[in-house]
Backbone:
């Protein structure tokens, strides 16, 4: 729905440059959001002015334009808030995100819109359309549209406050990077390329940041325990103390919203429209995870502790800052696998090619690099083609920059709608590399992360051709959204697939099969500990949103929960809650990762283990899951792909595989558990 707004020539030029893929100025961003919100308002006004019977065309079609324009404005403001190099643009993007959220909150509480949608005649409508309307009406009821005007006004103010606090919480994490100083000697154990990137200054001091490419190798490889502790505390206090009070205020605001709506807690409200259904169901699932992982985690810890005590007989416990280091040392000994040994085979550029080739073959599509400019010269742009037809575009923003979001995520850029817009999405990541002369050697878990995020990307692009914007791309239940990402990461298991792109960055040698075998054996060890970590994050997220915020002691609850679920000694001064970014996005529903892992493993088991990229399973998965976007309930998509509900057996087998493999490694290795 075109809307004419006149701007000064320089702003108009900025808008055109941005829409062509270039960087945006703060002024152009505001103007562009103005245009989208004006189109939103125009479609809404036209929809509400309809007289006579409500139909799909005169009501739902206009409502979908309202959603389409609102989503477009929010997506691009959100991306620029995460990636813009200019702080002024990031600041403006945060303000624009708040403005879009305010419009969304007002829409969700507009009773006239609800009544119009409820009156639409759905006779003969497609199942997707009926699902769209049904889910939309539920979201309106959960927002409080049936309350009186004063209550709706109060709810809108509360939602606006929650949005402001969430954005501020995230921004503090994004811009809260810290540095620590180290000596050359303290970097013992770190790989040569890491040492090459971190040269001492005139005083012999080396500056390390809390960005992932600096932090993670220190925690995994540095033999100096004091350095690991300094890095751990710097990383886990990035947004402290600022985010402590912000989080408490956010939790109180969310609880007030839930109370006004008649829910016991925010956790019950946040799960009401999810696959899980309620906070009680989440706790039942967590109890199942707890039972499934408890013995395995105990056995893992006993093996690690026994190994460490052989080197330090006086050691009674392993602290939280040494966990990754000792897992690495144990894997080297027990499985004859040094994770540094595979890094030369995973330079960033060849991994990127490998991930793209895997997705292209699996989903029978093509990726063509594009010359379209983007928000930063470091960003790569690709067009997606299906049988010669362009079906989308994506942006790879893959390395750290000052002010850029420091995590790994996929984000929508343009909401795809059949016949109106082609979908666009972005990966915002922080892998090593991106600097001239640095090959960006990845650890194998970095490669898994790349596959994971690309699974999200494929969901956004292939699911971005639905009839309705409200069903496009990632528009599934929140606790189904990690299925496509966790399913694609399982393809990292396949030896032939790995060897198709894992080439030594200096010699071109293919990663040997024997090293892959050891890597898989070593990589399987620690799965129970991973589940316990997921239990910790999940239970913390749930507990913070499932009790009276006024009585919360953040430090006490964080430490108490950790010590109840983890065997590694707690570190005083750990304020991880202040930089736990998922508390704003998933809120109480971080269980999504573990829940969707169960589904994803069952999905992956449907592929041919000898040739997972062959056959028709990939296309069947594309058609029944990815291309649906949010057109069907997640439960229905699971049943269509599997022919049944997901089963816990695939997850249980995956979880316990490590001990079978440990025995296999001991039998087949001359040195066994050295």
Residues:
């Amino acid at each position: 729905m075109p809307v004419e707004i006149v701007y000064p020539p320089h702003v108009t030029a900025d808008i055109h440059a941005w829409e062509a893929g270039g960087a945006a100025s703060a002024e152009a961003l505001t103007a562009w959001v103005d245009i989208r919100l004006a189109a939103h308002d125009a479609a809404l006004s036209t929809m509400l002015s309809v007289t006579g019977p409500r139909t799909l065309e005169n009501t739902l079609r206009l409502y979908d334009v309202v959603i389409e324009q609102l989503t477009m404005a929010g997506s691009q403001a959100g991306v620029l808030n995460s990636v813009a190099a200019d702080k002024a643009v990031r600041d403006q993007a945060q303000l624009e995100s708040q403005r879009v959220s305010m419009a969304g909150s007002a829409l969700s509480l507009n009773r006239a819109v609800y009544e119009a949608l409820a009156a639409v005649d759905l006779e003969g409508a497609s199942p997707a359309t009926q699902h769209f309307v049904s889910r939309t009406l539920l979201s309106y009821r959960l927002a409080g549209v049936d309350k009186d005007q004063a209550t709706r006004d109060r709810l809108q103010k509360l939602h606006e406050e929650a949005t402001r606090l969430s954005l501020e919480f995230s921004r503090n994490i994004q811009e809260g990077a810290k540095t620590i100083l180290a000596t050359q000697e303290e970097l013992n154990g770190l790989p040569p390329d890491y040492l090459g990137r971190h040269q001492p200054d005139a005083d012999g001091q080396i500056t390390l940041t809390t960005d992932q490419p600096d932090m993670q190798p220190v925690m995994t490889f540095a033999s100096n325990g004091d350095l690991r502790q300094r890095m751990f505390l710097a990383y886990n206090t990035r947004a402290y103390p600022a985010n402590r009070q912000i989080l408490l205020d956010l939790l109180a605001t969310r609880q007030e919203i839930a109370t006004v709506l008649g829910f016991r807690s925010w956790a019950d409200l946040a799960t009401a429209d999810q696959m899980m259904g309620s906070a009680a169901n989440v706790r039942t699932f967590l109890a199942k995870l707890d039972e499934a992982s408890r013995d395995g985690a105990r056995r893992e810890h006993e093996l690690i502790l026994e190994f460490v005590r052989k080197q330090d007989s006086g050691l009674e416990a392993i602290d939280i800052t040494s966990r990754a280091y000792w897992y690495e040392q144990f894997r080297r000994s027990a499985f004859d696998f040094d994770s540094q040994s595979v890094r030369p085979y995973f330079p960033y550029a060849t991994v990127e090619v490998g991930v793209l080739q895997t997705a292209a073959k699996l989903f029978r599509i093509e990726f063509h690099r594009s010359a379209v400019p983007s928000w930063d010269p470091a960003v790569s742009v690709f067009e997606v083609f299906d049988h010669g037809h362009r079906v989308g575009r994506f942006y790879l923003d893959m390395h750290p920059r000052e002010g850029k979001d420091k995590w790994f995520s996929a984000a929508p850029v343009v909401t795809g709608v059949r016949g109106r817009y082609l979908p666009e999405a972005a990966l915002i990541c922080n892998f090593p590399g991106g600097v001239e002369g640095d090959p960006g050697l990845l650890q194998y878990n970095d490669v898994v992360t790349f596959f994971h995020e690309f699974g999200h990307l494929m969901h956004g692009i292939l699911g971005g051709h639905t009839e309705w914007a409200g069903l496009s791309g990632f528009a599934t239940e929140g606790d189904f959204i990690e299925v496509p990402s966790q399913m694609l990461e399982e393809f990292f298991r396949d030896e032939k697939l790995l060897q198709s792109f894992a080439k030594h960055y200096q010699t071109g040698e293919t990663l040997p099969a024997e090293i892959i075998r050891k890597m898989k054996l070593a990589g399987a060890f620690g799965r129970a500990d991973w589940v316990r970590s997921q239990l910790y994050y999940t239970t913390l997220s749930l507990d913070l949103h499932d009790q009276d915020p006024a009585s919360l002691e953040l430090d006490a609850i964080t430490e108490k929960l950790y010590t109840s679920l983890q065997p590694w000694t707690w570190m005083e001064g750990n304020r991880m809650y202040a930089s736990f970014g998922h508390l704003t996005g998933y809120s109480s529903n971080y269980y999504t990762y573990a829940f969707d892992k169960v589904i994803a493993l069952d999905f992956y088991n449907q592929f041919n283990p000898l040739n997972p990229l062959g056959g028709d399973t990939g296309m069947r998965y594309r058609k029944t899951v990815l291309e649906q976007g949010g057109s069907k309930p997640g439960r229905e998509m699971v049943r269509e792909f599997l022919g049944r509900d997901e089963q816990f057996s695939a997850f249980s087998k995956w979880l316990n595989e490590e001990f079978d493999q440990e025995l296999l490694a001991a039998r087949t290795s001359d040195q066994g558990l050295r």
